[in-house]
Design a protein that fits this description.
CATH class of the largest domain in chain B: Mainly Alpha
Number of domains of chain A: 1
CATH superfamily of chain A: Aldolase class I
Structural class of chain B: mainly alpha
CATH architecture of chain A: Alpha-Beta Barrel
Shape of chain A: globular
Order of helices and strands of chain A: HEHEHEHEHHEHEHEEEEEH
Distance between the termini of chain B: 23 Å
Largest sheet of chain B: none
CATH architecture of the largest domain in chain B: Up-down Bundle
Radius of gyration of chain A: 18 Å
Strand order of the largest sheet of chain A: 6-5-4-3-2-1-7-8-11
Number of helices of chain B: 9
Strand content of chain A: 15-25%
Radius of gyration of chain B: 17 Å
Helix content of chain B: 55-70%
Oligomer: heterodimer
CATH class of chain A: Alpha Beta
Largest sheet of chain A: 9 strands, mixed
Order of helices and strands of chain B: HHHHHHHHH
Number of strands of chain B: 0
Chain lengths: ~280, ~190
């Protein structure tokens, strides 16, 4: 067993390796961690790089992969890459699901039956407040896309990101859950998490503070290096945050993985690191 | 035209995880705040630097003679200024610091053969190219053990590495060090 596998087994670091495929996006959400938008620098991880790191991750003892961005499905090669990654480890890929029609929807069909879940953002049960945070017609596009994915046998999770989950209005929550159930997504595949006060959310004074002490350590690779959490490689005012940077070295993967296991192991024993956010 | 800062410091609030232990509460060396851009390099460089430049079997005075003389030969403004202060705190006089910096020939100031042999060695290692003349090595070896020769040579070589790093990145000398040097008439 590798030292990294031991750290994963003991829960010192998470078993999922996150890959930031890109930073650009077709949306410009008010709480985006990475200030993603159509015109931003793409900061791509190449497909071959992601596959190579995924294989290393499996050999080191990681148990799952996560792909995020930006909007990963702006990249035409993403469906093919996800299928290739899923042959290595189970994959969750985060998406706004606003691009899933026509050619792009058809390109997802090979993912049916694979250990893949597309995690889709749906924040509110009503179009107006949802689209206020995420952009025009977001709600309608998401509601159209989810049943199409479910009908094709592609795994779907729904992520709801709100200012304060603890203060979430129970009636609104029930309406949202009724909505995702009606779309074919069960409660077990619905997560509610807080907005994190980083990136554009910090600029807009939204969300909860989340530093290394509050986050579950999950190794996260980007074009700029390896970070301690998918909430780490945030951008504010066009500048990349480095407070959760682990190493610039991403290959071999053992370098940042070992470093993360070490710093995670040195954290205060009494620290409750779990905000429960993905 | 004022020169542009090639690499800015990583501020404490942005210090990467591996770099945080090297950030002090009373200010942090620009070597640390620049290396923090590559935390895995910082994480091995600083312990190495601490071992080579910090307290060891060799006295602080001898070590600072090596560091200041080497830095002067390599014309590293940051290292000369910073370590001139350390030298003053390690029983090196202001007159000796001036000599190490070339204001006067060091041979006119340093009288003990142990230190003269050491400075001749430093001049050959840091100021020369290729092999060090055998007689200079034999002179050093007559005054120092094999272990000391290894440590002093490593100190000289590590200082050269830092000299080029600090010069290339134009690292700023701390205001406190500049004030101390001014008070000693060393600016």
């Amino acid at each position: 067993m590798t030292a990294v596998a031991e750290a994963i087994g003991e829960g010192r670091i998470g078993g999922r390796l996150w890959l930031y495929a890109n930073y650009h996006c077709n949306l410009r959400c008010s709480y985006c961690l990475t200030e993603s938008a159509p015109g931003v620098k793409r900061r791509l991880l190449e497909p071959a790089t992601m596959v190579a790191r995924a294989r290393e991750a499996r050999d080191l003892g990681f148990t799952a992969l996560g792909v995020t961005g930006g909007e990963p499905f702006l990249l035409d090669w993403m469906p093919e890459l996800i299928a290739e990654l899923a042959a290595i480890l189970p994959v969750v890929v985060l998406s706004n699901a606003t691009l899933f029609s026509g050619r792009r929807l058809a390109a997802l069909e090979p993912l049916a039956g694979l250990p893949v879940q597309i995690q889709i953002s749906l924040d509110r049960p009503d179009p107006e407040p949802n689209d206020e945070m995420r952009g025009p017609e977001n709600f309608a596009k998401v509601l159209a896309a989810i049943p199409e994915l479910v009908a094709r046998g592609i795994g779907v999770r729904i992520a709801t990101t709100i200012e304060d989950p603890a203060a979430y209005d129970p009636d609104e929550r029930e309406r949202l859950c009724a909505l995702h159930r009606s779309l074919g997504v069960g409660d077990e595949d619905h997560v509610v998490r807080p907005i994190v006060h980083r990136g554009r959310a910090a600029t807009n004074d939204l969300g909860v503070e989340a530093g290394f002490a509050e986050l579950e350590p999950e190794l996260t690779l980007t074009a700029d290096g390896a970070f301690a959490s998918p909430f780490g490689p945030t951008v504010r005012g066009g500048r990349l945050d480095t407070d959760l940077l682990v190493a610039r070295t991403t290959a071999p993967l053992s370098v940042p993985a070992s470093a993360l296991a070490r710093v995670a192991g040195a954290r205060d024993g009494g620290t409750d690191s779990r905000l429960g956010i993905r | 035209m004022a020169s542009q800062v090639l690499v800015g410091p990583v501020e404490p609030s942005q210090a990467p995880l591996l770099a945080r232990p090297y950030y002090g509460v009373d200010g942090t060396s620009p070597i640390v705040t620049s290396l923090a851009h590559v935390p895995e390099a910082l994480d091995v460089a600083m312990p190495f630097i601490a071992v080579v430049l910090g307290p060891s079997a060799i006295g602080a005075r001898a070590k600072e003679l090596v560091v200041v003389r080497t830095s002067s030969l390599l014309e590293c403004r940051y290292c000369v200024q910073t370590h001139s202060v350390v030298a003053l705190e390690s029983d090196v006089t202001a007159t000796e610091v001036r000599a190490l910096c070339g204001a006067t020939p060091w041979a006119n100031v340093f009288e003990r053969e142990q230190e003269r042999a050491l400075l001749a060695w430093v001049d050959a290692v840091a100021g020369g190219r290729g092999a060090v003349p055998a007689e200079i090595g034999e002179r050093l070896r007559a005054q120092h053990s094999e272990a000391d020769v290894v440590e002093l040579t490593l100190l000289c070589a590590a200082t050269m590495m830092l000299n080029r790093y600090c010069s290339a990145l134009e690292l700023p000398t701390s205001p406190a060090a500049l004030r101390r040097l001014a008070a000693e008439g060393l600016l």
